[in-house]
């Protein structure tokens, strides 16, 4: 009975395991191939853009673009706070939609007490507490 359930050939089974990529879409592997100044693609909001021709015009310089090339740059794009004018330029560089899974980034560290820490592990809450303590000490000594 076990033989009856495996009626497909090995080549057919291999084809079923890998979904077919829709036309006009780009995978993470294709995106990663374009990470140089000569061919620079980036992923923004699940859309793939070819920004090679724009590198010389970018107000922040080409280094920031090269740093994010060939991967999902959505977070970096939004963190900078691009203008409406910059967003209006994107459709001219659009290649197509993204297809597949993106690598997930790790979340920022949270200490066991629930407070945030900086990248060096220093508790962030110490700075404002120290500033308040210094102000109070200054007021007490001058009063």
From TrEMBL:
SMART domains documented for this protein: Cyt-b5
Membrane topology: Single-pass membrane protein
Pfam family, one: Cyt-b5
Biased composition (Low complexity): 1-14
A cellular component term, taken from the record's GO annotations: endoplasmic reticulum membrane
Broad class of the protein's primary localization: endoplasmic reticulum
Source organism, top-level taxon: Eukaryota
The keyword Signal is assigned to this record: no
Keyword hit for Metal-binding: yes
Subcellular location: Endoplasmic reticulum membrane; Microsome membrane
Keywords: Electron transport, Endoplasmic reticulum, Heme, Iron, Membrane, Metal-binding, Microsome, Transmembrane, Transmembrane helix, Transport
Residue ranges, annotated region (Disordered): 1-24
Residues in Cytochrome b5 heme-binding domain copies: 23-99
Record family assignment: Belongs to the cytochrome b5 family.
Protein name: Cytochrome b5
Organism: Kwoniella dejecticola CBS 10117
Lineage: Eukaryota, Fungi, Dikarya, Basidiomycota, Agaricomycotina
